[in-house]
Design brief:
Blueprint lengths: L2 E3 L30 H5 L2 H4 L10 E6 L16 E2 L13 H10 L16 E6 L6 E3 H13 L4 E4 L8 H12 L3 E5 L18 E6 L17 E4 L1 E5 L5 E5 L1 H16 L7 H10 L10 H7 L10 E4 L5 E2 L2 E9 L4 E8 L2 E6 L4 E6 L5 E11 L4 E10 L5 E7 L2 E7 L4 E8 L2 E7 L2 E5 L7 E7 L4 E5 L5
Parallel strand pairs: 2-4, 2-6, 3-4, 6-7, 7-8, 8-9, 13-19
Antiparallel strand pairs: 1-5, 10-11, 12-14, 14-17, 15-16, 15-18, 18-19, 20-21, 21-24, 22-23, 22-25, 25-26
């Protein structure tokens, strides 16, 4: 059977030192700052509604995958078709890097953040320590992955020749419900590369941070989508480095496919493929993850959106800005704010923000957010705030040139000020105080501020 040089395209196997942004999710992984692809394709926004699921298995058909803390508990037993045993560990590094692009644990304060945090990885070794392999082993690996329930099969490998053997394996995997994602190759040509060029396979090219095609990425009408071509990844030792090539863009797309597969109702491989193709945002074909989520069918969706109030104090006054965060696997259609049972406003685009005039209320007011997804599923969250739009009550007692001031307010009094001839001469924290008024004072007022910021002004000039 014909041999091929698989996966390890120019630059694809280099592991070099790398520097360790919906409402976007900002995971605490130290390597996230260097993962420009996650923000470019808006994976970070999609994380607000889905981060994958353990029921989704992504097969990495490659040089094997070595155990890493980033994959702990989610690396399944696999198969080695090169050495004909069940030890699918990685003796090259290529497959482990692909696996961490797909599924490195997110927000765990170590390493990097993969695309699909909760997806499980099925390691299938079909390439040897030098990155070479046969169509026979690759076909066997594809069939093996399909038989073990892989929803997505990631192939960062390929050759220049078509093969009935590969086509049969791809067809078999698709009949078992798997989506095949494969690298377009790194020769910078439009010549077809296999198995990516098999029509039903999702062929992936690589793009730069600006969204343009990398010169080394193969291209042509047979390339279905593109994705970030350089991604932070971890090799078998755990070292973080830049992993470049369509070998890197492919597991990125496979991870996104895993996110889509984790939604409800569970989409078919054909629906995931169609959604990814429909999400292309630039002439270079770069995927956009929130757009792909919205492109999935919504019939049968019973999952309600998530919604939460943004920062707002328990004590408010006057015109108040109320913000909200909302997310849904298929997209939020609108968010509404109610105050005291009355509709204040509706916002249909993120970031969600509402202007509420709390005056003239001085009372506890129930606020309510209602979020609707595209299917019409509704989530309601409530909270109460104290609207205070009335200044403190102020009482004065005069004795000679001394003013004794006492102020009261349900929200509490923040401070008192003595203003003489238009200038503040004394400022005291709290609700009471004594002030000595200068003998030549022409105009004297006392100001009292409550904790909401309301002001009461009282004439404090002494007689005689």
């Amino acid at each position: 059977m014909r041999k091929l040089v698989a996966g390890l395209f120019v630059g694809a196997s280099m592991l070099v030192a790398a520097p360790a942004q919906a409402a976007p999710v900002r995971p605490a992984d130290p390597g996230f700052a260097g993962q420009w692809g996650l923000t470019q394709t808006r994976v970070d926004e999609a994380w607000s509604s889905t981060r994958g699921s353990s029921r989704v298995v992504v097969a990495v058909v490659d040089t094997g995958v070595s155990p890493l803390p980033e994959l702990a508990g989610r690396l399944l037993p696999g198969k080695d078709f090169v050495n004909h045993d069940n030890n699918a560990s990685d003796d090259n590094g290529h497959g482990t890097m692909a696996a961490t692009v797909i599924a490195a644990a997110g927000n765990n304060r170590i390493g990097i953040a993969g695309v699909c945090w909760y997806c499980r990885i099925l390691p299938v070794k079909v390439l040897n320590a030098k990155g070479g392999g046969s169509y026979t082993d690759i076909a066997l690996g594809i069939r093996y992955a399909a038989d073990r329930g892989a929803a997505v099969i990631s192939l960062s490998l390929g050759g220049s020749d078509d093969s009935p053997l590969l086509r049969d394996a791809v067809g078999y995997a698709e009949s078992r419900g798997a989506l095949i994602v494969a690298a377009a190759g790194n020769r910078g040509v439009s010549t077809a590369h296999y198995p990516a060029a098999i029509p039903s396979v999702l062929a992936v090219g690589g793009v730069t941070p600006s969204g343009s095609r990398y010169d080394w990425s193969n291209h042509g009408s047979w390339v279905d989508v593109t994705a970030p071509g350089c991604n932070s990844a971890q090799g078998p030792t755990g070292l973080i480095g830049q992993y470049c090539g369509t070998s890197s863009a492919t597991p990125f797309v496979a991870g996104v496919a895993g996110l889509l597969a984790a939604t409800h109702p569970t989409p078919s491989a054909a629906q995931i493929r169609a959604a990814l193709v429909a999400s292309r945002m630039t002439r270079s074909g770069r995927i956009d993850v929130p757009s792909a989520l919205r492109a999935l069918p919504i019939d049968g969706d019973v999952t309600r959106p998530a919604v939460a109030f943004g920062p707002v104090g328990t004590l408010v006054r006057g015109r108040v800005t109320i913000t909200a965060a909302a997310a849904d696997q298929h997209g939020v259609s609108r968010v509404q704010l109610y105050a005291g049972g009355r509709l204040v406003a509706t916002d249909t685009t993120a970031p969600y923000s509402f202007a509420w005039q709390s005056a003239p209320n001085t009372a506890t007011v129930p606020l309510e957010l209602r979020a609707y997804d595209r299917r019409g599923n509704l989530t309601v969250v409530r909270r109460h705030v104290r609207a205070d739009n009335t200044g403190p009550v102020v009482r004065l007692a005069k004795a000679g040139r001394t003013l004794t001031v006492r102020a009261t307010d349900p929200a509490g009094v923040a401070r008192l000020e003595l203003v003489v001839n238009g200038r503040i001469t004394v400022r005291k924290a709290g609700a009471s105080g004594r002030f000595v008024v200068p003998a030549k004072a022409r105009r004297v007022v006392v100001r009292a501020y409550d904790r909401a910021g309301n002001l009461r002004v009282v004439n404090g000039k002494l007689g005689g």
